[in-house]
Design goal:
Layout: H1 3-19, H2 26-29, H3 35-51, E1 56-62, H4 66-72, E2 78-83, E3 93-94, E4 103-112, H5 123-129, E5 130-140, H6 151-156, E6 161-166, E7 182-187, E8 190-196, H7 204-217, E9 227-232, E10 237-238, E11 244-249, E12 253-259
Parallel strand pairs: 1-9, 3-12
Antiparallel strand pairs: 1-2, 4-5, 4-9, 4-10, 5-6, 7-8, 7-11, 11-12
């Protein structure tokens, strides 16, 4: 794909973010777009936010479940960038009008205490570099109309990230069972999703290993102090004004969000 078109599509997605008006799927208009093209579009989109003064505070991993991989026709996850402008404090009402078509996912966030640089990173090295893990919500939001996405669409759209909310407890990763831990997600007092750590590539640590090695091949490190959202433990939940959600993960605690 020509660099001019890469830039045009990245600019279009940024305008969609700012105007909160979704656009037609990129893959409908450019069926030959590759995943590599999509990551270059993602970089262009993110560059506008960085130019406005936002800073990278971490990464997110998406498409970590077999069901979603099958739906999108791929055999690997994707990643996007977490910026400080995407962070919402727990307890603060999130204005749903600042989003387009939001959904919420319960996840485990890793907080890093040292740099990690792939390729060749192992699970043991990820655990050694992790200060702790936290329960979190990712608020996913697509700038692609009606969520009609293929993998190239979501990658270009910064892995469909809208924002995130971290819980208040940081748990020593050595004290957490990240595979069998159960998740319960409630919406307006009703349980709507259940899941477990194993839903994320059999373990969220596996997702972290994938990310570190994928970024390493691109010359990008995971940095000390960064937060990495390791992937959903269950299905996405549509949200809107007036909704209140709580996610609880066994041994890790809980996190609550509300939308105005």
């Amino acid at each position: 794909m020509e660099p001019t078109l890469i830039n045009d599509l990245g600019d279009e997605l940024y305008r969609a973010l700012v105007s909160r008006e979704a656009v037609e799927p990129l893959t409908n208009r450019h069926p030959d777009i590759t995943i590599e093209d999509a990551y270059r579009i993602q970089q262009r989109m993110i560059s506008h936010r960085l130019d406005k003064g936002e800073k990278v505070v971490g990464k997110k991993i998406g498409v970590t479940s077999k069901a979603v991989m099958s739906m999108l026709g791929v055999g690997q996850p994707d990643f996007g960038y977490m910026l400080d402008g995407m962070a919402y404090p727990e307890g603060q009402a999130i204005d749903s009008k600042t989003l387009i078509q939001p959904k919420a996912e319960g996840e485990i966030a890793f907080v890093l205490k040292r740099d990690v640089m792939g390729p060749g990173v192992t699970a043991a090295e990820i655990l050694a570099a992790t200060e702790g893990v936290m329960v979190c919500f990712e608020i996913v939001d697509s700038r692609i109309r009606d969520w009609k996405i293929r993998i190239q669409d979501t990658v270009a759209d910064n892995a469909s990230c809208g924002g995130f909310v971290l819980g208040s407890s940081l748990i020593d990763v050595r004290q957490a069972d990240l595979i069998t831990c159960g998740m319960v997600l409630e919406k307006n007092g009703e349980v709507v999703v259940t899941g477990a750590g194993a839903a994320t590539m059999n373990s969220p640590v596996n997702a972290m290993v994938w990310l570190a090695n994928t970024l390493g091949r691109l010359g990008i490190p995971l940095k000390a102090g960064e937060v990495v959202l390791s992937g959903a433990l269950g299905a996405m939940v549509p949200v809107g004004a007036g909704d209140q959600l709580r996610v609880s993960i066994g041994g890790l605690g809980s996190c609550a969000i509300r939308f105005a």
